[in-house]
Structures are given as C-alpha cells and as structure tokens.
Amino acid sequence: MVDSEILRRIAETLEARKGADPEQSYTSRLMHKGTDAICKKVGEEAVETVMAAKDGDRLHLVYEVADLWFHSLILLSHMGLGPDDVLAELARREGISGIDEKASRKEA
Question: What SS3 string covers 37-60?
Fold first, then answer.
C-alpha cells in the first residue's frame, strides 16, 4: 500500500516550486500563468480521465487520475489551500448521505 502522506509531500514540493524559475520548473511555469491556465489544465485532465474510463483502460485511467490529482494539487496550492483542506472536508462528509450533504449546502 502506498503511504497516504504522499499528497502532503507533493504539496510541500509544489509550495517550494512556486518560487522556482519558470524556465526550470513545469509547476512554476503553470503557476506563473495564473488561475485560468491552471483551471484549463485541470479541465483537460478531467476530460482525459473520463475518456480513459469510457475506454475501459484501467491502467490508463490510473495514469489520468494521477495527472488530475496532481494538477488539482497545483490549483489548491495556487489558491493557498492544500490536501489537508480537502481531507478535512471529506472527513466532515464521512457518514453523511450524499443527498443530505448536498441539501445542506443549498440551505447555507
């Protein structure tokens, strides 16, 4: 089993890459392009994930989800957030019906 701390280690690396030379770091280059560019990349990876799933290619699906998660971590970092923020939200939702959880968001 892979260590779940990998998300936090990747997040730490992404934070360090924010200040890196965009010519030397893909992450830095993407972050320097701004929110729109990062969101576009997350969208592209989401589409590729869906396509891999529709093709039924399990290995390709894993690769694409890894790309989607990685680029989502870049977006979180760019917005001053990290995996712990998402994990806390998932923990909050644990044991709550999806229908009930979604209804509570409409009330708020």
Answer: HHHHHHHHHHHHHHHHHHHCCHHH
Tokens of 105: 């968001």
Contact in structure between 76 and 83 (CB atoms under 8 Å) = yes
The CA distance from 17 to 31, in Å, is 9
What pLDDT was estimated at residue 108? 61
State the pTM of this model: 0.87
Please state at what angle helix 6-17 crosses helix 26-33, rounded to 10 degrees.
Answer: 70
* Closest listed residue to residue 68, CA positions, set 82, 51, 48, 85: 48
Query: Coil, helix or strand for 9?
Result: helix
- Alpha-carbon span 105 to 101, nearest angstrom: 7
